[in-house]
Amino acid sequence: MAKTTKRTKSARAAIDRDKLYDLAEAVKMIKAGATAKFDETIEVAINLGVDPRHADQMVRGVVNLPNGTGKNVRVAVFAKDAKADEARAAGADIVGAEDLVEIVQGGKIEFDRCIASPDMMPLVGRLGKVLGPRNLMPNPKVGTVTPDVAGAVKAAKGGAVEFRVEKAGVLHAGVGKASFDEAKIIENIKTFVGAVSKAKPSGAKGTYMKRMAISSTMGPGVHVDPGSAM
């Protein structure tokens, strides 16, 4: 443990908190500081010049990372009959209808992504208060309400990342693992930042991407020049 702590302190000491680093340099530093005994997640946080309380300044979407997230994503699907069979065949972890609604209402949420066929939405709509705060509510805008449940399951399993700006204008997501090589992390981050850039809402005024930082689960954060990530 002492060795890990020493390496972590060394990593923190190497970072200039007032400097904006080029993305490639920042990724190198983050990997060096990821010294935990597990494969740490690489995370991106972006401060956006928006006020999501206004409908025309909401930022949300989904992006398929070219190198995946490295995370085993557990997917639940609300579907019946043939659609349920398609979801299972595509690798869904949990599939159900009224029975799954009861499980979720009971507080048992053992999944990271939730998908629904359109005909199930009147049923799933009852779960807004449970799934909404966890950012798990299926939504057609991000492809989680769709007749192509098999395609949505495969996308979720293959590296699709949903993003949604929070009240303070901050948006964050996991974009890979510390075990990924630098080139793959950089490619994932650029893909993610590109998707956020394309999702710029009509009501956004002034500087859209104000600040950006990357970090690992246990390591220090590094401020990145957003321009180097475009």
Protein architecture, described:
The chain has 230 residues and is α/β, with parallel strands linked by helices. 33% of the residues lie in helices and 20% in strands. It has helices at residues 2-13, 23-33, 81-89, 98-105, 121-124, 128-131, 149-158, 182-198, and strands spanning 41-48, 60-64, 75-78, 94-96, 113-116, 160-164, 170-177, 209-216, 222-223. The strands form three sheets. Strands 7-1-8-9 form a four-stranded antiparallel sheet, covered by helices on one side. A three-stranded parallel sheet has the order 4-3-5, sandwiched between helices. The chain has a two-stranded antiparallel ribbon with strand order 2-6. Strand 8 (209-216) and strand 9 form a beta hairpin. The longest helix is centred in the C-terminal third of the chain and has 17 residues, at 182-198. The radius of gyration is 19 Å and the shape is globular.
For this entry, give a set of tags.
three-stranded parallel beta sheet, single chain, 230 residues, four-stranded antiparallel beta sheet, globular, alpha/beta, 9 strands
Brief sketch in words of this structure:
The protein is an alpha/beta fold and 230 residues long. The chain has 8 helices and 9 strands. The chain is globular.
